[in-house]
Amino acid sequence: MAFYQASVGIVATAEVATLPEDKAMPGIVKDPTKYRWIFKLTDTHLFLEQPTVIDAAMRLKLDAFAEKDPTKVWSWFVFATRLLTEHDFALLTGG
What we know:
- By secondary structure, the protein is an alpha+beta fold.
- It has one domain.
- The protein is built from 2 helices and 5 strands, in the order E-E-E-E-E-H-H.
- The strands form 2 sheets. Strands 1-2-5 form a 3-stranded antiparallel sheet, with helices on one face.
- The longest helix has 8 residues, at 86-93.
- The protein is globular, with a radius of gyration of 15 Å.
- The two termini are 12 Å apart.
């Protein structure tokens, strides 16, 4: 997984280690009724000091933006869970 921080960029990666469970986590999760699916992560990497910025130049390189104008609204790309091509994941995570 890659993690996007609003107005910053891609700031972390991790590997999903378990299947999701429908389990509320009051006190840990801000809105446990809305975000009730949990799973464990392994192999986590933070790169807060050097996030990958998703600017127009980066969007031009991504498969997800093929045949799309990179200067138009692109919030659809980060405000939902999205399956990426290996190419896009590598570009966004430096891997």
